[in-house]
Write a structure and sequence with these properties.
Layout lengths: L1 H16 L9 E4 H18 L3 E4 L7 E4 L1 H18 L5 E9 L2 E8 L6 H4 L21 H11 L3 E5 L6 E6 L2
Length: 173
């Protein structure tokens, strides 16, 4: 199943890179179910780093019409980012939510977070926080997630909660 999923992701990314949106297939979906499935898929990776990845979504279905592969790929990029920057023993919360009728998925980590002036740069290609240069990566994860969501009319927002860490929200139309 993961192999077929990876093939769909590659085909979707290639189509987007070519500027083609014809392959995107918006369908009704429960974002809560997607958030739970992708969080479960990342639990082993988190456990190897002594992290807990927990469901923190609404109990009710959160419905949206979007391309499943795009949503899952963007969510994977955001969870990967959270796993990289959360210290051992930390918790990453993943869950669907609806705010003012707008469906989304929120990933909340308890890592170092970003200063308010850095938040605007977090989704730029190749941008990395100066204080986190020792963490592997290319600075593309949130940029890719942003581009994927834009391809379906969605958006990504990043904010720093008062008690630290980072909250990344993937909003659908």
């Amino acid at each position: 199943e993961e192999g077929r999923r990876m093939t769909r992701i590659l085909e979707t990314l290639l189509g987007l890179a070519r500027g083609s949106r014809a392959d995107l297939a918006p369908r009704p979906m429960d974002l809560g179910e997607i958030a739970r499935r992708r969080a479960e898929a990342w639990r082993d990776v988190g456990a190897r780093r002594s992290l807990s990845i927990v469901d923190a979504g609404d109990d009710r279905p959160v419905m949206a019409s979007a391309d499943r592969t795009v949503v899952e790929s963007a969510l994977d990029a955001v969870i990967d980012n959270a796993v990289k920057y959360t210290s051992a023993g930390g918790v990453i919360e993943v869950g669907a939510t609806g705010v003012s009728g707008r469906p989304g998925i929120v990933v909340r980590d308890h890592g170092p977070g970003l200063d308010p002036e850095q938040l605007g740069s977090a989704t730029e290609r190749f941008w990395r926080s100066d204080g986190l240069a020792d963490v592997g990566g290319s600075g593309l994860g949130l940029a890719i997630a942003t581009d994927l969501l834009h391809s379906i009319g969605g958006e990504l927002s990043v904010d720093s909660p008062e008690d630290g860490g980072l909250r990344v929200s993937l909003w659908m139309q």
